[in-house]
Amino acid sequence: MSIDWLYPLVSLLYALVGWHFWRTRWHGVTAGTRWESFALALPLALHLLLLEATTVTSGGIQLGVGNAMSMIAGLTVLIYWLSSFHSRMEALHAPLAGIAAVAVFAPLVLPSTNLLANTELLAFRLHLLIALLAYSLFMIAALHASLMAMVERHLHHVGDSGNDMTANLPPLLTLESLLFRLIAVGFTLLTLTLITGVLFSEEIFHKPAEWNHKTVFALLSWIIYAILLGGRRLWGWRGKVAVRWTWVGFSMLLLAYLGSHFVLEIILHRHSG
């Protein structure tokens, strides 16, 4: 039985959630209601069901660039949704839901029939899971940094007409503290990703990880986030400096996996491992 009908349904549900929070949190000052805490639950559950059906096959895991984009978006929404019960983060509902509404179609736009090799190995599965979680956390951090930049810009133009979107947000210092917590956890997972990648390469190919574009960009991202966390601790980096370093680090991370896989699979029509 075809499940293609789930793609537009999941996208529509995400879009409706995004529209609601855009209208109530970005263009109005509205107190939250209990049901809103679970607004993402339905599209998220259907998205995860769709990912399970299209990614996990009898022959192994099919994780081309389209499936990877959709999976990262789904995990990002899941992590963010769970975190939102402990932190006041409703402002990110709209952009995250919007991204997920588009990303859910990625497997259809960028299809791949190549199965990921060595997925029967526990070491590789662990490496893959940690890597996807790291990507998802850094995506939230990048969106969070964008939100901080908008809030800071808004605070410098308090005389502008229109609704005060900052009324629905925690203070800027609280947002900044949350950003560095996200980066710290993401950095830990990225470190584990690099370590497990080396261990996986040693176990399968009996040699260290290959020195290629993916490795270079992943290491560059790790270095950038290490400098950012060090700068925060030693010199109190914050504000625009933190936002810019977060964006640059996430850009390197995107180039490390999605960029390289897009070139190999879509442009060169080669299987990327």
Kindly describe this structure.
- The structure is a single chain.
- By secondary structure, this protein is mainly α.
- It has two domains: 1-116; 117-273, no CATH class.
- Helices cover 70% and strands 1% of the residues.
- The chain contains nine helices and two strands; from the N terminus they run ααββααααααα.
- It has helices at residues 6-26, 41-55, 65-83, 93-103, 106-109, 122-155, 172-205, 213-235, 239-267, and strands spanning 56-57, 60-61.
- Strands 1-2 form a two-stranded antiparallel ribbon.
- A hairpin with a 2-residue loop joins strand 1 and strand 2 (60-61).
- Helix 3 (65-83) packs antiparallel against helix 4 and helix 6 (122-155) crosses helix 9 (239-267).
- The longest helix has 34 residues, at 122-155.
- Mean pLDDT is 81; it is low at 264-269.
